Structure formats: C-alpha cells, structure tokens
C-alpha cells in the first residue's frame, strides 16, 4: 500500500508539473484528491489495517496529499504569473499615440458678449450687481417713477404672475435694490446684467425674453459729461477705437434728461449704408440723468447727489458686433450657429 501511495504521488506531481492551463490543474486535483480518487480510496481502506499500521499509514497519506497540493498550488502560481506576463506583453500602451479628441462645449455667444461688456465696465470701476428675475410691481415699476396707471404697466405688455408680481421687464429693479441696500451711501457704481421679459411677438428683431445690461453711477457732481465719457469709452472698447457717439434727446420715466445714444456706423464708418439706413449712425442704447424722484424714493437726497444711468440690449450689441441678422439665432440653439463662437 505504501508503494502504491508513493507511486500515485509521483504520478500526480508529474501530471501537475506538466499541466498547461488551469483546467488541466483542476483535472489533476479531481483525479487524485477528489472524492472518487485513489487517495480517498486508501483512506477508506484504513479500517482494515492493524492498530499499529493505521497511524503510520495515516501520516503517509497526509504527507502524500500535502505534497500533491503543494505541487498543484505551485503550478497555479506559475500559470497565473505567466497569464499576467502575457497580458502585460500584449496590452502595452503606446503613450506616443495621439489621444482621442474630447468634444468640448463653449459658452453661449450672449454670455461671451455679456462678459466682454462686464470687463469694459469693470475696467472703469463699476461693480456687478444681480437680482431676482421674478419681481414685485414696487421694485420693477413704482421705484422707477412708473406710478400706477402708467401705460408701461399695462397687463398686456408684461408677464404678470399675480396682480403684484411679474417677470422683470428691465434690470432696473436690481439698481433700485442696490440703492436701498446702500442706504444713501455713495458712490453707487454698478452694472446689472440679466434676463428680462416682455410680452412681445418674436420676430427677427424682437424676443419676449432678452438680455439687458444697465448701469448706474450716483455720487456728488455726476454730470452728463461723465455719462458721455463713460459711453464713448465703452463704444471704443466694444467696437473700435475710432468710434464716435452722439446723444439725441429722448424720454424715459426714470431719467431726466434722457437720451438715445448712437455710435458711428460700424460698417461704413459714418459714410452711410444700408445698415445705418444712410444716416451714418446706429442706435445702441438709452441713457440719462437719474430722475430726482427715483433718487429720493430710494433714499438719496437729489439736491446733494446726482447720477447717470444707461441701459442696453445685449442681443442688439452682439448682432451689430458679429453681423447677425436675426435675434432668434440666440435662442434656437442651432449648433452651426453656436460653433462659430467656439473659443479655443
Ligand atoms: C435706476 C435709474 C435709472 C436705466 C435706463 C434706459 C435708459 C434704456 C433700454 C435700452 C434698450 C432698454 O433693452 S432696452 O429695451 N434702456 O433706454 N435704461 S436709462 O435707467 C435707470 C435704471 C435704474 C435706479
């Protein structure tokens, strides 16, 4: 029996050593150490041995089994190491290969124009203020010298949520809020970019939602010439250094006097063309000196302080700067349009 066991051991170890893959190792294990294998059979026959022989044979069976198991484990380790080696050899990464291009998005052209305008005014010492898009009638109209019954408050012109709450029709309420927070302190020198909403039929030049940037500068001795200098600097930096501006009298309830501001035509430099309707000028914004009522209502003594304010539609500025002929391009998200504004 002892010889038989030793012969089995040699046979099993030889087969384990020769195994080419995990499957073959498993087969050897099942063949020699499995329930129906020869070693288990020897163990079953132990009962027929004498009391002296039994412990010796038991010890030998254990040794044989351990040695076979060791041979199997060592084979498994060897095969695993080889598998890893093969994998590393076949899966090497060529770091010199060009990468796959990542499709990057880009900021919306309107956002880009807002940022350009912000940079220009930040350079002149303005700060940026923001406020809610859903406003009360009080901040949107009342504080801006548009009392009840004013035609601009017509239900047909604005998106009312309740009788007293609406989507802001301009960013001016942000300035009114800023003035109240400043509690009569000066200077108030802010620009307010943001979305505004008006009940309008959309066409090539009108949109029921658009972006505005308004500005406000209140201090002692602020005059119309400060306004003109500020807007000329803006026009030169936004369009070109040889830009000129002109102010035409106008009317807004929140400013007195009020003006409309033109820039010399960016296409024909003032000579006259189709874009400027042969006038040489293009209107870009409205402005004026803050109405004394507006100053007083938000806590500023109109005898001590004066201020200027202006407002512009961002789409209009962007359309002029980039020669865009339809405001709806900004809101229909045609990738061919948007890609032209992709920044590298
Ligand atoms: C306060 C006081 C005064 C803001 C101003 C305009 C003139 C103006 C329009 C331009 C084109 C709006 O987008 S648009 O339709 N805006 O003409 N806005 S002065 O005046 C203010 C604002 C806030 C407290």
TrEMBL record:
Transmembrane feature ranges: none
Alphabetical list of Pfam families matching this protein: Phe_tRNA-synt_N, tRNA-synt_2d
Cofactor(s) needed by this chain: Mg(2+)
Gene3D superfamilies listed in its UniProt record: Bira Bifunctional Protein, Domain 2
Binding locations of Mg(2+): 256
Catalytic activity: tRNA(Phe) + L-phenylalanine + ATP = L-phenylalanyl-tRNA(Phe) + AMP + diphosphate + H(+)
PROSITE patterns per record: AA_TRNA_LIGASE_II
Chain ranges of the Aminoacyl-transfer RNA synthetases class-II family profile domain: 111-320
Self-association and partners: Tetramer of two alpha and two beta subunits.
Protein name (database record): Phenylalanine--tRNA ligase alpha subunit
Source organism per UniProt: Caldalkalibacillus horti
Organism classification: Bacteria, Bacillati, Bacillota, Bacilli, Bacillales
């Amino acid at each position: 029996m002892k010889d038989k066991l030793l012969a089995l051991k040699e046979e099993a170890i030889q087969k384990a050593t020769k195994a080419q893959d995990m499957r073959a190792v498993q087969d050897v294990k099942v063949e020699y150490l499995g329930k129906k294998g020869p070693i288990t059979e020897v163990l079953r026959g132990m009962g027929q041995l004498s009391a002296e022989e039994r412990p010796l044979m038991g010890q030998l069976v254990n040794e044989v089994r351990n040695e076979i198991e060791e041979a199997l484990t060592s084979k498994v380790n060897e095969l695993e190491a080889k598998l890893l080696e093969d994998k590393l050899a076949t899966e090497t990464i060529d770091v010199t290969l060009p990468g796959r291009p990542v499709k990057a998005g880009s900021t919306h052209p309107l956002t880009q124009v807002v940022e350009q305008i912000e940079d220009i005014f930040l350079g002149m010492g303005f700060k940026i203020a923001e406020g809610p898009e859903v406003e009360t009638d009080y901040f949107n109209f009342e504080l801006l010298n548009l009392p009840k019954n004013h035609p601009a408050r017509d239900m047909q012109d604005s998106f009312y949520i309740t009788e007293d709450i609406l989507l802001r029709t301009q960013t001016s309420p942000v300035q009114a809020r800023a003035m109240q927070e400043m509690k009569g302190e000066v200077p108030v020198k802010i620009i307010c970019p943001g979305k505004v909403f008006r009940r309008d039929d959309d066409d090539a030049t009108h949109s029921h939602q658009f972006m505005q940037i308004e500005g406000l500068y209140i201090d002692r001795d602020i005059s119309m010439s400060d306004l003109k200098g500020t807007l000329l600097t803006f026009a030169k930096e936004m369009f070109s250094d040889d830009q000129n501006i002109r102010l035409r009298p106008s009317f807004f309830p929140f400013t007195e006097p009020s003006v409309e501001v033109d820039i010399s035509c960016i296409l024909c430099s003032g000579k006259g063309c189709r874009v400027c309707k042969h006038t040489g000028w293009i209107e870009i914004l409205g402005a004026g000196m803050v109405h004394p009522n507006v100053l007083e209502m938000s806590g500023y003594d109109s005898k001590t302080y004066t201020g200027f304010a202006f407002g512009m539609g961002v789409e209009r500025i962007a359309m002029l700067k980039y020669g865009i002929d339809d405001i709806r391009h900004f809101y229909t998200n045609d990738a061919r349009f948007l890609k032209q504004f992709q920044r590298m």
